[in-house]
Fold:
Amino acid sequence: MSKIPEIAAAVETGKIKLIEGLVQEALDAGEDPNEILDKGMIDAMSIVGAKFQTNEIFVPEMLVAARTMKKGVEMLRPLLTAGAIGKHGKYIIGTVQGDLHDIGKNLVALMIEAAGFEIVDLGVDVPPEKFVEAIKANPGCKIVGASALLTTTMEALRGTVKAIVEAGCRDLVKIMIGGAPITQEFADEIGADAYTPDAGSAAVVALQLVS
Ligand code: B1M
Structure:
């Protein structure tokens, strides 16, 4: 019987001590790492968000669920990125200033790495000028990805694009953005090159942008 429902329950309820064992059992049983990620972890995290919204759980529970998922994703990382050699060059990525959410950004980084890019991960709460510094420090890097999960930090995406333009770096890189509150309309409005709703499509679009 599939271990994925148990993995989902462990993420949802933040059973951090169980997650590695469950993921290992699923892998040993031949379950698909992508399926474990999508159905066992990403879907579970959506439930966590919905429960937070309806005050069934609070920030500490949300945090422990996030830590549980991170631990599980780390186990899948080598399987999802096998064979990737950075042949498409570097990809700078970060979560924008004021925003501490990094699970989605890390998944995008993982999929982009698996598609053959070398990731330069700036982390979370990244000020616009740090994106600019990273572009200057990584000549030849063709794409910058920025993530925002809060409606209040969407404006930091606009600030990031503006800083890249003002630093004279706009022609050097394509800019991709994403995160739950982001839309294609917003991407067009702030002058980003691409918006994608999830990590899988981010990897596809990144490849299109460099081809
Ligand atoms: Co926060 N949080 N959180 N949180 N949190 C949300 C985002 C929220 C929607 C929950 C809710 O109310 N239902 C809500 C935002 C409301 C809003 O702005 N409209 C919210 C809030 C309010 C907050 C705080 C303000 C809570 C508080 O303190 N009162 C606070 C803010 C802190 C801050 O950032 N300054 C806060 C804190 C936290 C924790 C620290 C506890 C924790 C984050 C831990 C961590 O990331 N290390 C947390 C979590 C876990 C969540 C939820 C539950 C899950 C986020 C997540 O990891 N999702 C979230 C609710 C939800 O999203 N349903 C919520 C799973 C992940 C795989 O999806 O990140 O959407 P996601 O990424 C996807 C896509 O969006 C896309 O691809 C990813 C993978 O497919 N994508 C990109 C993301 N980046 C991309 C970039 C791209 C392309 C695609 O190109 C570059």
About this structure: Residues 104 and 179 are 7 Å apart (CA to CA).
